[in-house]
């Protein structure tokens, strides 16, 4: 059970769930990107470079607003900010359904990126104020995968054959509106940086209050760089081993659901066994999954490897986000976790593509495993320093 705090208004199940659903809106485009790009390519017949630039436009918008979040996220009403971001994202998607102009869609994707990046950064601030950040972020990460997982099943199988790319945009907009109703359950403002105790702690640990959160952010960024490096090419890896396209799609859809389960497991564990043991264990699981993906020859091996690999994603991020939130005594830097993920999503696939050209899939998977191990070392270093300063 998630502990309820009688003092911290963030530590309520209603807030956890609302934040998870709002975060699902912020992560929606990331989570359904393969299906979204496929629908766009099928309907609008853009070439690969144009599709890549459209995805890049979204990432630029997402990253830009997430980087700026440190300046605005604690100066606004969180409920109103969430509602406005939902409205902007829905407007961008609906406007996209009315045009086939490449330049217009490029601009609208950047706008949707701004809106969704704002939502994701906002939720990082909300849950960063929790007294139980590991559990709060675990539940958030589990919940945020559910809308994307549902649409990953629905878009290719039911929506695109009937309504094409426009139908995909309508369904995504409707999903955002439903998720946006959770805004009413968010708190208006946070608790960090608003009381004298928080200010005293910030002054007392002035150096650590900057360095430790930045290292926590680095752990998330490095880990997610490795994850996106392999995730971007998992379908091609299956094809290279001769697996059927339909089988690959089914495995990846199920593995994505398992990714969400990892967040719920992290929420259930919390700090019951400390932080270091669960994170070390999950990184070993991550590396085991990558090792299986490097050596499999049948669909069963592909399914096991992909499932272990993706199970580790939300589980690990729950703990890296949680530790970053704990050491961020002023509550300002944890919001940059959103930018860290988007930067990792840019670096990872770009690096993996070049590694594939020079060393094949084994080198790409080794790169992912190396990123996970480096992230683990950074995490252990931050956690140990955090224990020393308490």
Summarize the structure in words.
With 390 residues, this protein is mainly α. The protein folds into two domains: 10-191, MFS general substrate transporter like domains (Growth Hormone, Chain: A); 195-390, Up-down Bundle (Growth Hormone, Chain: A). Helix content is 81%, strand content 0%. Helix 1 (13-26) packs antiparallel against helix 5, helix 4 crosses helix 6 (133-180) and helix 11 (276-295) runs antiparallel to helix 12. It is globular and about 55 Å long. The model is unreliable at 1-5 and 194-205 (pLDDT under 50).
Oligomer: single chain
Average pLDDT level: 88
CATH class of the largest domain: Mainly Alpha
Query: CATH superfamily name of the largest domain?
Result: MFS general substrate transporter like domains
Strand fraction band? under 5%
What is the count of β-strands? 0
Cα radius of gyration in angstroms: 20 Å
Order of helices and strands: HHHHHHHHHHHHH
- Specify the overall morphology: globular
- Major beta sheet summary: none
Query: Gap between N and C termini, in Å?
Result: 26 Å
CATH topology of the largest domain: Growth Hormone, Chain: A
Which structural class do the helices and strands define? mainly alpha
* CATH architecture level-2 label of the largest domain: Up-down Bundle
**Whole-number total of structural domains:** 2
Q: Helical element count?
A: 13
How much helix, percentage-wise, in residues? over 70%
* Poorly predicted regions: 1-5, 194-205
